[in-house]
Design a protein that fits this description.
heterodimer; A: about 120 residues; mainly beta; B: about 120 residues
Chain lengths: ~120, ~120
Amino acid sequence: NAGVTQTPKFRVLKTGQSMTLLCAQDMNHEYMYWYRQDPGMGLRLIHYSVGEGTTAKGEVPDGYNVSRLKKQNFLLGLESAAPSQTSVYFCASSPLFLAGKDEQFFGPGTRLTVL
Amino acid sequence: AQKITQTQPGMFVQEKEAVTLDCTYDTSDPSYGLFWYKQPSSGEMIFLIYQGSYDQQNATEGRYSLNFQKARKSANLVISASQLGDSAMYFCAMREGNQAGTALIFGKGTTLSVSS
């Protein structure tokens, strides 16, 4: 049981390049999220998904696209990377039903630098 | 207005002492959940403790306890008997409403340094 995994762990891009971050979870969780973490800003929600085939915008969605073609995977895409997207990206997942603490399970993060 | 406020950018404590990390929140929803996460220098987010808005008692998990004062809208994390391994960034977060799948709103974090 790997929990939530993220690929890649590190990446350096040049301005204008594109890339896709992959998040995978093996807990059969219904909900998945992408956050970004910047110094002094805490974590902010980019996009989220409430089920396979559905996505929705979070607090800071501009410049990103997402897809949830399979329940276990949530992809975050940058079509034309900008230096402002230099950040640490976290994926998280949570189960369908509230069960007390309703914990979100986080992946290890992806450190992205855009030059 | 910020939904989650952590006013202490950094805190310092000696081993074996207790420390309180402050968190205040702002919501008009009567149903919500409050979380604390730890982020060590390695970067992963580690869940510590949860408090539901209707929970009558303060949550406890080992050396962690949550001092929940609903009327003051505060949810402070208390770490008893600090250890060197407690040195990390700590985030307070909130889930508004009672629907599963609602994303968390995070504070900006507090860096805790534990010295021997």
